[in-house]
Amino acid sequence: MTTTVGPPPGDVSIAVSGVSKVFTTKKGNVEALRDIELDVAAGEVVSIIGRSGCGKSTLLRIMAGLLGPTAGNVTINGQPLWRGGSVDSSVVQKLGVVFQDANLLPWFDVIDNIALPLKLRGVDKTTRRRRATELLDLVGLGGFAGSYPRELSGGMRQRVAIARALSRDPELLLMDEPFGALDALTRERMNLEVQRIVAATEATVVFVTHDIAEAVFLGDRVVQMTPRPGRIEETTDVHLARPRSMDVQTTPEFGTLVRHLRHSLEGEL
To answer: In this protein, which residues make up the domain named ABC transporter (predicted)?
Structure first.
């Protein structure tokens, strides 16, 4: 088992430095994160796991510019994401975010949902529809441009959400349990899709999940967080060749990684 404290050699895409988060509630302060240090290399896929309430989603929202840290900062390719209490909008534009809920606009068809971030940036209609069509083909939904979200399955809606997140050619793709509400077979198919899309786009990805097997299947590294206040307990390398088929889950190497991570999490009880 190999445990590391940083990314493999290469340019750092995102650096989380000394990030802590404290929420103020009616019952007092709640320390969600404490002194998080994490570097992710360009082109790397990092999975984040941990028990419910450990701060995984809080950390991802801070990395996405949606929630300000109490202390510390995040840099994207060397540029600070947060400046005081405000987010730098020019840095946010380098990010794509996908949540568990696809959050598609029901009155827009698929092509317009994908093109929405480009429309908000003032990109002309011809250009944004051409880009949306390319992405629709990339996620395997080329025949559904005129469909509406209500006409799609859960997995298809998540593909649209991923295409929308990629529409601005993000340098970093942040995914917060995007397949948590899907059935097991659809989830497996979506894991294969994410792997294929990442290979095609050479994206840097941070992927939050409760599922240890999913974390190992997708990740180059798996970051384990402690119970609240969330800290990084350990970072484990995943030395499995790519591309990975679902059959990799039957190999001794995969099983060893999953057992190690499961036992590590159980040791927190």
So the answer is: 14-252
Chain mean pLDDT for the chain? 90
CA dihedral 139, 145, 149, 151 (to 10 degrees): -100
Looking at the chain, list the stretches that DSSP marks H as alpha helix, in order from N- to C-terminal side: 56-63, 89-92, 110-120, 125-138, 154-166, 184-201, 212-218, 252-266
Q: Which residues partner with 220 through β-bridges?
A: none
d(CA 141, CA 104): 15
How many CA atoms within 13 Å lie on the side-chain side of 73?
15
Per-residue pLDDT tens digits for 29-71: 999 999 999 999 999 999 999 998 899 999 999 999 999 999 9
What is the β-pairing status of strands 82-83 and 86-87? antiparallel
**Mean pLDDT (whole number) for 161-187:** 89
Single-letter amino acid, residue 219: G
- Do residues 178 and 171 make contact, with C-beta atoms less than 8 angstroms apart? no
Buried b (16+ CB within 10 A) or exposed e, 206-220: bbbbebbbbbbbbbb
Q: What are phi and psi of 249, to 5 degrees?
A: -70, -10
Rounded to 5 degrees, φ, ψ at 118 are -70, -35
Place of tokens 């939050």: 208
Q: How far apart are CA 40 and CA 57, in angstroms?
A: 17
The structure's pTM equals: 0.90
CA atoms within 13 A on the CB side of 250: 3
Six-digit token string for 234 = 């350990």
Query: What would the mean pLDDT of 91-115 be, rounded to a whole number?
Result: 92
